[in-house]
Amino acid sequence: MPSENGAAPRHSDAAIDPNAAARQFAQAMSENELYQQTLERYHPFLAYPPERPMVFVKFGGPDKQAEADMQRVAWDWLRQQRQRDRGCDIHVPEVFRVFTRNGITFIIMELLAATAIEDLAKTSDPTWVQNEARYFEMIAKGISLLSRMPVPSGATPGPYTRTRANRLIQHMLFKDQEAPVVYGTIQDLEDHLNKVATLAYKHQPGPPPRVTLEKELVFCYTDFNGGNFMFATGPDGRPRLYIIDFEHASFLPLSFLSYAVWGRKPRGQTSWWIRTKLGDSLPQHNIKVMQRISYLFQISATGLGL
Q: Which SUPFAM superfamilies is this protein grouped with (predicted)?
């Protein structure tokens, strides 16, 4: 396939940039052809083109733009981390292209040859058995690394994306895992939570407990589904972790990451290991009141406390 300047890619180019051919394909592919492929599909994703896949495609509503933007931020941060630390084997699939057609937003990204941690856990492969703890340590390290990235200028609570309407927080705290409004500041978010806390504790004597959020935002990756952590073997023979699915990633106070770890009983082996490896490093002072707030969100109207 020709490169941007018209020349065929050299073998050395592929070694330096293994995504070069897929990236060029993504930029040249027909939007209409892809759109037709996705009509009446049950699952909102596919490997494309079907006969000889080169890229992975996710598609859906306007929130897919925010998901793609958060994935790009994470990809760039981990790329920088690997340059600084050659021992870092934590990756995010590269996003090659995003476009919207007929109200559907498409994310075209790197196609992985990797296995989800939940599938590895079902095997008796000796490599997995011997390195199980190491794999889960890598997952915890990846979530922690993402939380330490510099916050982009202009970020507000929620996804870092251009359109304000798409900055709705996707998080398990809220009803249907989506905040009812876009919050302009951390204080706006804290004020809303504390209005709900007042309602949650109205039958108890004394002043209600309050949420006290951290005053800085951090990257919170909070979807601990085992299918979102995939492993491959790198060229050097070491395990390589890919973190996927950034629909529920946002810039939030650290207590929101802590709530994802401590707020609910671990659901599956991956969540349990993340709590074991990462939990003690996270603040827990807001957990109980956030649990009470979340319960009230789930059983109430969407606009509770607004």
A: Protein kinase-like (PK-like)
d(CA 303, CA 128): 46
Q: What is the pLDDT of residues 144-168, one digit of tens each?
A: 999 999 999 999 999 999 999 899 9
Residue 20 shares a structural domain with residue 63: yes
Asked whether residue 150 is assigned to any structural domain, the reply reads yes
Structure pTM? Answer: 0.91
Are residues 234 and 251 part of one domain?
A: yes
Same domain, 122 and 211: yes
- Give the 3-state DSSP-derived string for the chain, with helices as H, strands as E and coil as C: CCCCCCCCCCHHHHHHCCCHHHHHHHHHCCHHHHHHHHCCCCCCEEEECCCCCCEEEEEECCHHHHHHHHHHHHHHHHHHHHHHCCCCCEECCCEEEEEEECCEEEEEEECCCCEEHHHHCCCCCHHHHHHHHHHHHHHHHHHHHHHCCCCCCCCCCECCCCCHHHCCCECCCCHHHECCCCCCCHHHHHHHHHHHHHHHCCCCCCCCCCCCCCCCCEEEECCCCHHHEEEEECCCCCEEEEECCCCCEEEECHHHHHHHHHCCCCCCHHHHHHHHHHHHHCCCCCHHHHHHHHHHHHHCCCCCCC
What CATH number does residue 225 fall under?
3.90.1200
Please list, in sequence order, all residues whose beta carbon lies within 8 angstroms of the beta carbon of residue 205, skipping any fewer than 6 positions away: none
pLDDT in tens, 19-29: 999 999 999 99
**Residues 26 and 82 both lie in one domain:** yes
